[in-house]
Amino acid sequence: MADPIKRALTRRRRVPGRPAVIEEPDVRLVYGVKFAVAMTGCLSALEIAHMAFLGSWSSEIFSVITGLIGLVTGIFVGQKT
Questions:
Q1: How many angstroms separate the CA atoms of 2 and 7, rounded?
Q2: Predicted pLDDT of residue 18
Q3: Where are the alpha helices (H) located in the chain, listed in sequence order?
Q4: Which stretches in the chain have pLDDT values below 70?
């Protein structure tokens, strides 16, 4: 099975009359996105645990989660254009 993050970051250019040109992303970009997605999941679990055990909302953790989600979204949008 192909890596979904690598597949999502791969560019495909179609020129009429020519075969499609496939440009694969740099491996460092793929690893960076994987790390950011994993950290977002870990921080989300941390926020859920914080709310469950302490009964309060942590705006610092939420701001980091929001920043990482914005980073990943920006990478996907910037890589596709």
A1: 7
A2: 87
A3: 4-9, 27-54, 59-80
A4: 1, 80-81
Residues in the chain: 81
Tell me, what DSSP letter sits at residue 18? S
Residue 12's DSSP bridge partners are: 22
- Euclidean distance between CA atoms 76 and 74, whole angstroms: 5
What whole-number distance in Å separates Cα of residue 26 and Cα of residue 34?
13
Q: What angle do CA 35, 7, 74 make, to 5 degrees?
A: 55
38, two tokens: 């994993």
* CA torsion, ordered 14, 16, 18, 21, to nearest 10 deg: -10
